[in-house]
Amino acid sequence: MAASIIPFSITHEPIFPKFSKSPFTRNHKPTKLVTRNNSSSIGELVSEQNQQHHHAQRNSTYKPKLEEHLPRLPEEWREIQGENEWAGLLEPMDPLLRTELIRYGEMAQACYDAFDFDPFSKYCGSCRFTRRNFFSSLGMAHHGYTITRYLYATANINLPNFFKQSRWPKMWSKNANWAGYVAVSDDATAKKIGRRDITIAWRGTVTRLEWVADLMDFLKPISWNKIPCPDPTVKVESGFLELYTDKEESCGYCKYSAREQILTEVKRLLEVYKMEEVSITITGHSLGSALAILSAYDIVETGVNVTGDCRGVGVTVLSFSGPRVGNVRFKERLERLGVKVLRVVNVHDVVPKTPGFVFNEQVPAMVMKVAEGLPWSYSHVGVELALDHKKSPFLNPNADPVSAHNLEALLHLIDGYHGKGQRFVLATGRDPALVNKGCDFLKDHYLVPPCWRQDENKGMIRSNDGRWVQPERPKLDDHPEDMHHHLTQLGLANSYHI
Amino acid sequence: MAASIIPFSITHEPIFPKFSKSPFTRNHKPTKLVTRNNSSSIGELVSEQNQQHHHAQRNSTYKPKLEEHLPRLPEEWREIQGENEWAGLLEPMDPLLRTELIRYGEMAQACYDAFDFDPFSKYCGSCRFTRRNFFSSLGMAHHGYTITRYLYATANINLPNFFKQSRWPKMWSKNANWAGYVAVSDDATAKKIGRRDITIAWRGTVTRLEWVADLMDFLKPISWNKIPCPDPTVKVESGFLELYTDKEESCGYCKYSAREQILTEVKRLLEVYKMEEVSITITGHSLGSALAILSAYDIVETGVNVTGDCRGVGVTVLSFSGPRVGNVRFKERLERLGVKVLRVVNVHDVVPKTPGFVFNEQVPAMVMKVAEGLPWSYSHVGVELALDHKKSPFLNPNADPVSAHNLEALLHLIDGYHGKGQRFVLATGRDPALVNKGCDFLKDHYLVPPCWRQDENKGMIRSNDGRWVQPERPKLDDHPEDMHHHLTQLGLANSYHI
Questions:
Q1: What are the residue ranges in chain A where pLDDT is below 50?
Q2: Mean per-residue pLDDT for B49-54?
Q3: What is the pLDDT of residue A331?
Q4: pLDDT band at B7 (very low <50, low <70, confident <90, very high)
Q5: pLDDT tens column, B102-134
Q6: In sequence order, what DSSP letters do the residues of A379-441 get, joined into one string?
Q7: Which fold would CATH assign to domain B42-490?
Q8: How far apart are the C-alpha atoms of B388 and B375, rounded to whole Å?
Q9: What is d(CA B299, CA B437) in angstroms, rounded to the nearest whole number?
Q10: Cβ contact B115:B127 at 8 Å
Q11: Residues of B recognised as catalytic
Q12: What sequence ranges are listed for the domain Fungal lipase-type (chains A, B) (predicted)?
């Protein structure tokens, strides 16, 4: 009964190439691939990558090499964190910087993967995991970080597309949305990366781009919302400012503003690790990037990064697909304070072009001088790493605008970027299938299902009596007992009515 | 740090009522609920059911009672299988018949739940489970049946919305689609239900209604496709006929037609169980109902249900949301052959109204007489159980037409139906949350996510090297070795070129 059928046991065909050795270490110029660039079409490249890949399959030696360049980190982490404004690290792309961008990008991506945005869930708007199980639940235990605090924002402000609310009448909180976390590298990781790293990751908006339209596109002096600033002409987008400073005292989760949560936690951690070398790395995608830049500014302007022995701990923002945050005075103030910002963007993404479509850092200085007084004259900050999804042979060049804003896709672009004009070649072995987790961006012939990341039965489980129910979740931590103590020390307690 | 938040530990609120004792057994008239019918709005009913339910929660005594009436089955199964055309069992609804309709309806539903309809899957169009793991994978091991054979149809015929094809270039089969199964009650179940039951379940079309438009709406003499029939005026819809009789000899899975698969398997099983009392129950939803009726006709017309000692094994069709299949001659022929058909429909579903929108069993006999010669003059068969989703307080009365055709919703309607004009009250404790498995039909305030049945990460898993891949599946059985032997015995071998 043999038949001319194709058997079920076809080997899965992964979709990235194999290189026995990474052609891009800091000391090896990618000459071979550069010369190839002119002679290969993208189609040929893909087919060639597939062949290389088949070879890899047979030898079964292929391993992701995200950690390959990490041994350099204890020596070079200051440079990687932007001490010299990333000079010489972007063109060509430094493989250690690439590794670090992907590592922190995954910390930002975790905010999406952990967020419950199903309005039919009674925990909608919260984090799906307790902070102790956060990284292990996401398969990220190897990152070697411990979350010390979850961050919450009040949903009372006018950014409806940032906040998700449950349809359940009895919710975990009517006012709060989970907004990210503060994590610290554990001892083993601290040793591996050369310092104790405090990472703050801010959640962005989920999937759609409507939140851009929610922005009031109105610059407001930063000091109006009680963030100290010696210069009243330093202004930021009022929506970001409110998101960062608003609170709702009737709610256990957002009775403190995001600002108060961040400042007290950074202060507390710097006391805990006062005998160590420490870095503060703030990351976020999209709206999360705006919060990252704003909180970085605040930490340094407020001085909570200054330790007892008067060392200033460096603050770095690794921003992904972020919008503009403030005016040119804000940019200058950030620079004077020494906050380092590396902004990774996809040039086809509309979000980094907002707010400030008309007046921004790209118009001539003379025009900007005139426009400076206008409340909608924005400026990007820091150093930009501009990537182009049309350079990746894996991606559909004509995907929808939401895909161009996708964080997983941006991490894929970082993985294949080697410098301007260089050929796109995946360097770390990061799985391109991840691109389609939450969008439809990979070319169809790679046969990765679009938007494939989903929970079994939308999280419903069968109870003992056979009924399908939403399982209970353990209560999330709200805020530590010593908040008031830290707020008092920061001189912020008076704004809080106990 | 206590706060006025709502804790995470709110108890889940299930959505069906609690009755300490079912008010509807065969000997108890539902008088209490009937009188209530006039005084309660649906809103009051729901609120009342919720209260009853809260009471149930506290006492935690509620158990589904699908099996409550089964002990009557060894005595009464012939009547339940339609020996007397279900006279007296529908008004009021007999609780044992309800139980049996749900039991077989779940066997039909299993065909959807097991079908791989994701075009990004390389096993698209196949069954997700091997036949030995079928019921256990679906949490239906308690049904007590063993699948003896999978059924396949060729996708070569012109019903594009019935067939699903993978986008993968190397598929498990280019021509075949999994179309259902043949199962036999195991020894324990056979004892419990009073006979050895052969169940044939046909898969219908997935989710959408486009397949109705695919039908050519053209009646064709049944004998033209080599199904024996003494009367050339007996006609059925040509699309159903082709689906049932076509084959593709180059494909291991559909080198035999669905017809050949069914007839040989029934014949084989009747030989295996020739010393026992046997029933044949054929079920299917939607297009699967058409195949159920056609195959029931064929089994009896061909005589494969006649055992060695000349007993004719009864053949019953339990049809769900089925379209018309043939003309009035086909109906009469089915009746003469003694095939029993119970058709359960939702009166708001368009599918049972097709084909034959114009000329059907509902026009006056005189008109029908004139129209009889037309090739689009259809007639329903058997006994109809007409349900109305607007009677269920759980369902959104204005849901889309696809919901009105949904099988899980129909099983919910069966569960709450007690007779014409009777109040809708769930009888077996079957979970109404199941309604939303594949549609958005429950009222929003029940907070069951719409279309909640889904695989984790669309079936993608992480391989040992960290990449996301589609796992391999074991090869599905094609056809037994002794097919040709059985075909020869049936006189069908000449149509098969070995």
A1: 1-64, 496-498
A2: 43
A3: 95
A4: very low
A5: 999 999 999 999 999 888 888 989 999 999 999
A6: B--SEEEEE-GGG-TTB-TT--HHHHT-HHHHHHHHHH--STT------S---GGGGGGSS--
A7: Rossmann fold (3.40.50)
A8: 31
A9: 34
A10: yes
A11: 286, 349, 405
A12: 200-357
Instruction: Answer whether A48 touches B (CB < 8 Å).
Output: no
What chain B residue is nearest to A1 in terms of C-alpha separation? B481
What is the pTM assigned to this prediction? 0.84
* Beta carbons of B260 and B247 less than 8 angstroms apart: yes
Contact B12 A472 (CB under 8 A): yes
Q: Which residues of B touch A8 (CB under 8 A)?
A: 123, 172, 472-476
Residue numbers in A near B497 (CB within 8 A)? none
B373 — pLDDT class (breaks 50, 70, 90): low
Distance of CA B240 to the CA centre of its chain: 16
DSSP H or E run through A133: none
> Taking CB atoms and an 8 Å cutoff, what residues of chain B touch A476?
8
Within an 8 Å CB–CB cutoff, is residue A62 touching chain B? yes
- Chain A: nearest CA to B21, how far in angstroms? 17
Average pLDDT for residues B39-64, to the nearest whole number?
Answer: 39
Q: Is A479 on the interface with B (CB under 8 A)?
A: yes
Q: In a 3-state reduction of DSSP, which class is residue A134? A: helix
Six-digit token string for B93:
């609804």
Active site residue A223: no
Report the sign of the C-alpha dihedral through residues B485, B490, B494, B498, in that order: negative
Identify the residue with better confidence: B70 or A22. Answer: B70
B62 pLDDT higher than 70: no
Q: Considering only CB atoms, which chain A residues are within 8 Å of B457?
A: 452-454
Place B64 in a pLDDT band, splitting at 50, 70 and 90.
very low
pLDDT at B30 over 50: no
User: What is the pLDDT, as a whole number, of residue A494?
Assistant: 63
Is residue B309 within 8 angstroms of chain A, CB to CB? no
Query: Closest Cα of chain A to B229: distance in Å?
Result: 31
Q: Cα dist. B108→A362, B98, B179, B473 in Å?
A: 64, 15, 11, 23
Region B338-366 average pLDDT: 86
Nearest alpha-carbon partner for B202 in B337, B301, B320? B320
Residue B184, strand partner residues: B146, B198
Cα distance between residue A330 and residue A363, in whole Å: 17
- pLDDT score of B318 more than 90: yes
Chain A contact for B8, CB < 8 A? yes
Is the Cα dihedral B64, B70, B76, B79 positive or negative?
Answer: positive
Q: What chain B residue is nearest to A480 in terms of C-alpha separation? A: B1
